[in-house]
Amino acid sequence: MERASEGVLRVHMESSMKRWWGEKRGTGGYVAVSQARMRLLCGARAAGAYSPEKQALLTIRRVNQPLIDALADIITDRGKSTWWEEYRDTLDADFLEVAELESGARKLTTYTTSFIPGLLQTGAYATALFAQTYPPLPHHEIDLRTAFRMQRQRVVRSGAAPYTAFIHQAALHMQFGGPRVLTEQLKALAIDSEHPSISVRVVPFSAGVVPSPSENFTYAEGSIPELDTAQMDTGHGIHLFDAPAHLARFRALITQMDSTALPEEDSRELIRSVMKEMEHQDG
Q1: How far apart are CA 117 and CA 110, in angstroms?
Q2: Which residues neighbour 195 within 8 Å (Cβ) at sequence distance 6 or greater?
Q3: Whole-prediction pTM value?
């Protein structure tokens, strides 16, 4: 099985080779060097062992040196032990790739339309969501996925990566697990919204035009702009995007959300208002 920890790195390696190592032809094509050579150079940089030949190659190819340095840092970090390794034999690679993406981000932004984002879910809410999976998951698989999701949250609760969550108002009313589970989820969300490194912004029904309901996404900012990555969940697994045109579109969506979403305090008031409605319904 392919190592999930190589997934995000592989995406950047392949696109970086095309973007920085190729020679443009009149037809718009590229002549790319091998991934092995890219790894060799990054590895040499990580070890501080550039030979004169490698230095010359870098000069001749006019490589983006900050990108090489950043990729080398990723390769160096990849050799370190990570908490998600214990799940490698029990969860699909997609789960591990999401954890890797989040752990390496300088900043995280998410947009969800029908559920509270995973990084801010309570255990009961996450369990209720996984119970909706079709075909149905066995109980031990639901427990495993829930435990993994709870561990993922450490990256934002620790403040390691500042986090902005844009949540459509519709998501506040989705009763996964029933009114009581949703009430506790909204209470936790209101508390999380006051965390110094977490910003919760609700996109109200009145916002009008918003991305399609299927476009729940995560935007992870890398150490340099070339290493930014967008991730979308689909019924066939996760999709990672790092091409400039794709990233520009996601950044435009974030700008749109920023202009239409309620301010933090107004978002908190709306969350508490819906929470009270759920408390009344549950009572």
Answers
A1: 7
A2: 156, 157, 159
A3: 0.81
